[in-house]
Amino acid sequence: MTTATTATTATKPAAPKATDDEIDTAILTALADAGAAQRPVRWTTIERRIPGTVWQQEMALVRLWNDWRIYAVKVGRQLLLELSGPLDAMIAAKQLGTSPRVLPVVQ
Description:
three-stranded antiparallel β-sheet, alpha+beta, Arc Repressor Mutant, subunit A, 39% helix
């Protein structure tokens, strides 16, 4: 007589879900580290450093773009990102009819 055994496979525990603030901060930090204040940076350059799922990352990019914190341009198949500056925020605030949240410092 044979005894049937069942094999169990170990499953990888689910990663803790990243919050929107954590993802936003990670994107802005990665862009700053990559020099996105002076030139556009490819999304693929920083993508692996960003926590969260692909969908969370995509929503964070949309959120940051809507808040005028980044510029996003797609050239061919490459998504290029650049940090916006304080003057950009002032222009956006004027166009939206709100007061600017930042002030430029002239040296």
